[in-house]
């Protein structure tokens, strides 16, 4: 479907800049000094996992991808074929082992219970499989302790091919001392056990803030143009959201706008209606707080954000009798700003943009 056709259905859409995505991939490689596992879980952080992965695979030479669920991995495998390595870095229910291994997904093994379950399946079906061994150096979520006996692990589970050993930083954006402590623990584990497999520790903020001494890195949010707490890395925003004003009206001083009358005009005002609301991922927390950009002017949101529509102040915008385009998310109004208003992080903002907003891809 063409952009014009999509806009005719509803004028609100997300424009995904694939060249910016490619730029960010190269930034991740350059800063880490290694190749990467591109994290595209949660539908590519809201950008569209299949399109992002296909572009990275065919145009950027990315050979490894990280997902969070078996379904994400299955869909990606069907789309990209057998060659890319797809790492499933979370938990897998035992009822999904057939789907996991038949799709050549690489699971994370993080304790003996899950290791035994995977290995029993492989023995039963007379198979071997690549796995990621996950070590807990301080996140305290998933992973073996760093004092585990790696040799005994390989003897106990001979059907496993350990192709990747990883740990995960808990605070690489806020606590470099603790992050370096985790790095030291992981490095010591690798050295003590003479690990020859690929290894990875650094996530996006880790890539920006910590020297990489491992063979891979695992960028996620930075691939999409964001990096919490670090403004020195030259990333490019990948997603922009646009719409247009679909209705304009004048209100008098003392009149109110939207549900529960939470905005009262203190003067005559021009109000514009924009077709985006909380069902699209535009949070109700933006009510009376956020802004949209129209013809170079930042226009405050007026009153409560509705399910499908939001009202903005167009009083200071030269309209010339036209229904203007609206920048809702982009270089001027970023996901970081949305996150600040909603008391969250850009990850949640981007993942929360619903599929009611069509994604249009620009190369």
Domain count: the total is 2
CATH class of the largest domain: Alpha Beta
So how many helices?
Answer: 12
Number of strands: 20
Give a short account of the largest sheet.
7 strands, parallel
Shape: elongated
CATH topology of the largest domain: TIM Barrel
Structural class by sheet pairing and helices: alpha/beta
What oligomerization state is this entry in?
Answer: single chain
Helical content class:
25-40%
Q: From the coordinates shown, what is the CATH architecture of the largest domain?
A: Alpha-Beta Barrel
Instruction: Please indicate the percent range of residues in DSSP E strands (runs of 2 or more).
Output: 15-25%
Ranges with pLDDT <50 over ≥5 residues? none
How much is the average pLDDT? 96
Whole-Å distance between the termini?
16 Å
Structure description:
The protein is α/β, with parallel strands linked by helices and 363 residues long. Helix content is 31%, strand content 23%. The chain has helices at residues 3-9, 18-32, 41-45, 49-59, 70-80, 97-102, 112-124, 150-156, 176-192, 204-209, 335-342, 346-351; strands at 13-17, 35-36, 38-39, 64-67, 85-88, 105-109, 129-134, 160-166, 198-200, 216-217, 239-244, 247-251, 256-257, 263-264, 269-274, 291-294, 297-300, 310-313, 325-329, 359-362. Helix 2 crosses helix 4 and helix 4 (49-59) crosses helix 5 (70-80). The protein folds into 2 domains: 18-224, TIM Barrel (Alpha-Beta Barrel); 239-361, Lyase, Ornithine Decarboxylase, Chain A, domain 1 (Beta Barrel), CATH 2.40.37. The strands form 6 sheets. Strands 3-4-5-6-7-8-9 form a 7-stranded parallel β-sheet. The mean pLDDT is 96. Strand 4, helix 5 (70-80) and strand 5 form a beta-alpha-beta unit.
